[in-house]
Write a structure and sequence with these properties.
heterodimer, A: about 550 residues, six-stranded mixed beta sheet, about 35% helix, B: about 160 residues, alpha/beta, two-stranded parallel ribbon, 8 strands, globular, binds protoporphyrin IX containing FE, binds iron/sulfur cluster
Amino acid sequence: MYQYSPEDTKFLVERVDQFEKQLKRHLDGDLDAAKFRSLRLRNGLYMELHAHMLRVAIPYGTLNTIQLRALADVADKYDRGFGHFTTRQNIQYNWIQLPEIANLLRDLSSVGLHAIQTSGKATRNITADPLSGLTEGEIADARPYCELIRRWLNLHPEFSWLPGKFKIAINGAKLDETALRVHDLGLRLVRNKEGELGFTVYVGGGLGAAAMVAAETASFVPVEDILSYLESAMRIYNLKGRRDHLKKLRIKFLVRQLGAEEYSRLVDEDWKQTRDDLELKLNLTQLSELEKDFALPIKPLVLDGFVDKVDFNYSIWKKNNVRAHKISGHSIVNISLTKLGEAPGDATSEQMRILADLADQYSYSELRTTKRQTIVFPHVRKDQVFDLWKSLEKYGLASPHQGTLAQIVACPGGDYCDLAKAVSIPIATRVQQRFNDMDKLLDIGNLNINISGCENSCAHHHVADIGLLGMQKNGEEYYQITVAGETLQKTVIGKKLGPSVSGDNVVDAVEDIVNVYLDNREEEEKFTEVFKRIGIKPFKEKVYE
Amino acid sequence: MSDSNELTAASATLEAKVTESRPLDTSVLNKDNESIELVSVEQWIENVDEFSKLGVGVIVKPSDDVKLLQDTLNNVTLIALDFNNFDDGRGYSQAYLISKRWKYAGEIIGINAHLDQLQFMLRSGVTSYKLLQDYEGFDELDYSNGFSICYQAAANNSGLKEKF
Ligand code: HEM
Ligand code: SF4
């Protein structure tokens, strides 16, 4: 697996040293709160009233077990024994003490982890398909490109003080597990007619109050030209992006204001002048070294006469959580840390160590994190999946609800978050209680329900089959319902169903929507397919009748 | 104020607060310690011939369109980029365009500069700087040159091992 070189690690330490000096100046009264805020956010540090939150990047969502144990150690040594895996391949710690921050970051740098540019108006951690390298039909593993672009954006002299935050996702697989078109900039690996590798570029997507699907600004940028293209795309944003309106800082507002065509024209005009610049060509030697570093650690296996165990709970779990690996004899296993009624993504240090031990035993010491806040074991031998399941069961990590409707994505919401307009997790719990029949859950199949407590949309409700958005009406908690959002095959922002629904009625509404789906479903149709066929009306009528 | 309260307050008032009306600097000491008069981009454009003869410098605000200077750049004695607003990063792109793309040969001075941003300014193409007063007594080298390596091409990577 890829590891940082000594000079990369030295850079991480130098970054911590500099941040430590800045922190000291702030504590000594020599650096005001506003400037320090800008600097600390670029080092992943949020300051809340009672404690401080640190966001640590998990680049392209890939971790080795040494790194996961280091994250567990940090949870014990500097936090309260918890970490929170987020929807964008980061982990957050919520109870960090300021004087300890530099030591914490030094501990992480020794295993190649960092919090650089995980927040603030800069380019954020670049997310990749969590199944990069694993699925059939993939154009190319996105991670070597993520790593080269991540490096290139590290303390970029021109683009470290952008109008707003800037999130990039890269996908090389058939299905889009990254939701790249709701990112500020999304890159899709493609091949042109000549069979050459390049990227289709999408700019200006995002969720939040003004959810938008990114526009395609270039259908094919050859891989070696991607840095010069990105440079131009970001330069236009840096120079022309809105800085005057706090709610319009993201690039989506610039693209909307100029029009995608005009924005692309400006980018192309700038790009013409740098495209042939040798300094900006992607270094193909480094790329091929990285491709070797990210190569899969497994070979095809012939498992003669292998028959998997038959066990009711195992089969249910397997149906929802085990996927085919492109290398024969192997499987991809999805693991949820969440028990029903808990905040998704929370992991105790003990759970992290258990996962590290199991990954050493069953998954070549490698793990991935996903936007559904789950952990993936990327390469498990088919004849060891049952043993892995047994171990997961022992530790309470193999709930058969995983992968069903009952596995809801919910933000911390009103119980934990100052910005919330309404609660999220209690609604998730009530939905789970309503659908507590395993047969029914299996019949419904994989249906996503995402709940955000306010327009910041931390739970990505716009791109779920059923999305709930918390709001206030006359001092009471209400929920805006959206339906049929999706990202896997193509990107669609969910449609508003109608007037928002009170907290008392929202679970009934969810049940109504699910029932309309079941009543109209033909064969194996997914929720979005039924929606496309029958339209919004039957759902509306049922919910508001 | 905590980050989330700050954001709540920010969203409650949709006030635009970025454009501050601060009087522009009217002169600056160049690297040879000579005082150079500064004119605004608009003034320069209107009187290029006259100002070219006078040997004045041009002060560029973040909101200025530096493309307006491109054709007459070589008549300008000095360019002063104003970095006073800590979070407004347009100056770094302006520095790149003037220095690397248009190959301006004169001095590009970053004025009202912040200690913590020296490394970004210098690498973007700024050739000299004048810090704001708040930063007296700190070691500038910690911030102008705190790293051993860099990961991207830039106008000035001197002293850094390049890895890209
Ligand atoms: C109490 C805790 C939290 C607070 C105060 C908070 C605050 C915010 C705010 C203010 C934004 C919008 C920023 C902007 O668009 O400029 C945001 C976006 C976001 N947050 Fe959170 N958040 C919290 C917890 C979380 C958690 C736990 C997760 C992950 C599970 C998360 C994931 C995200 C994501 C993915 C976005 C970006 C949505 C987009 O694409 O626009 N947040 N958050
Ligand atoms: S969506 Fe809103 S309520 Fe939920 S965590 Fe994000 S900011 Fe808080």
